[in-house]
Amino acid sequence: MKPLTITTSHAPVGLVLAVSGDLDHTNAQQLRHSGQEAAAVAPGRLLEVNLNDLAFCDSSGITALIAVRNHVVSAGGEVVLVAVPANMRRLLHLTGLDQVFDIRDTVSPLTDR
């Protein structure tokens, strides 16, 4: 099991949450909390969730991603998932969530990282 790490950075278009490790029932609340903070810090802006280093995600993790999206959207913002691993993309497709989330292959060139 890889510990969950969520790193927040500022970008010209909003905020970036870089999620790495295992996202599961033991730590999904961390992602929810990070998403709520992001919506409060940058209301009405873009939240880019970088999943490049996500090793594992269970149903609690997916529920947390949905909660983050709903919270950010209710604050007038947008959520983009970037660098989504193949196994996670498949899961999002099978559940129909690929129609809910804006999913992009690469990190936005507008970010200042």
Automatic annotation (TrEMBL):
GO terms for molecular function: anti-sigma factor antagonist activity. Transmembrane segments: none annotated. InterPro entries: Anti-sigma_ant, STAS_dom, STAS_dom_sf. Residues 4-113 form the STAS domain. Belongs to the anti-sigma-factor antagonist family. NCBIfam families: ant_ant_sig. PANTHER family: ANTI-SIGMA FACTOR ANTAGONIST TM_1081-RELATED, ANTI-SIGMA FACTOR ANTAGONIST TM_1081-RELATED-RELATED. This is Anti-sigma factor antagonist. It comes from Streptomyces capillispiralis. The lineage of its organism: Bacteria, Bacillati, Actinomycetota, Actinomycetes, Kitasatosporales.
